[in-house]
Amino acid sequence: MKRPTKSWKTTAPAAAVLLALLSSGVGWSGRAAAQQPQAARPADGLDVQKLRDDVYLIAGAGSNIVAQVGPIGVILVDSGTTEAAPRVLAAIRRLTPLPVRYIINTSMDRDHVGGNQLLTASGLSILPGAVVAGAGLDDALVSNAGKASVLAHENVQTRMSEATGAAAYPFALWPTKTFAFHAYSMYLNGEGFRVIHQPAAHTDGDVIVELRRSDVLVTGDLIDTTRFPMIDVSRGGSVQGLLDALNRLMDMTIYNLPIQWNDDRTLLVPGHGRVYDKLDLLEYRDAITVVRDRVADLIKEGKNLQQVKAANPTLGYRSEYGTDRGEWTTDKFVETIFAELAKKPGPAAARVN
Ligand SMILES: [Zn+2]
User: Which parts of the chain fold into alpha helices (H)?
Assistant: First the structure.
């Protein structure tokens, strides 16, 4: 059925307003602000961006760090590297004189948990006197011997405690409170925090942290805007689990429709790189899905790893997300997808190079 057409008389003014808004750039001001690089990096190497009235992104400390500031103090998601921790603490002090109360870690990655020791020691648990006062609240969540607490999924603690030799984690970086089920919720600073486990994605200990009132999703390395997502198979990660997590994020994210010139929208803070919105996430999710499907098709055609690589399955996405530098290159990403898909039972299984 054809939609009834409005007369030119009634649609023209509305179209003119829309055109004026679009051409003036008003429609994309929020997006531009989120993407704009700082004019100059401050002397401490950290960029602090205000995302919401009481939510800040601290970038440049290894991983991105989110600080939610309220009446009881500061709730952090991730703590950056050990080396950056004193500068992170100084940056938090410039936001508020109140103590750090709680840290939530999105994975066991060293550049996400490295600041746990200094930042918890400088902080204060939620009810520091609870045990002494005989209140019976000896849970590490609220008392933790007076220090701020660290929450993570149980697999984060398991991986940290298993690591040995040069890879070992100092005990002071370990979480003080873990959960083994799907999600953990709490209300702090007038904000509902939902910590949702994503099994087998970047690792097996990843969580999405939802700041419900502020409508901010902290994704950890489920998203890394500087490269294709790092899938750490040795620590329980998988391509399918990562795609599941990105699809879950799509479900949880709201775009600024139907009034596109409003800035209102869900913000996604990735483990590394710039703040995303739903449109950015859609492009990232689609890129990974398309590359995965291309590799799957090539495997079905009987191609081995060399032939898959030669067919350039990241074509069209390489300039946006690809990198040949560092430990997680585009090649590694393709190899990881190939290994996971070729492993699956079926005719392709015999073709693992
Ligand atoms: Zn990371």
Answer: 8-23, 29-35, 85-95, 110-113, 116-121, 154-162, 239-252, 278-300, 305-310, 318-321, 330-343
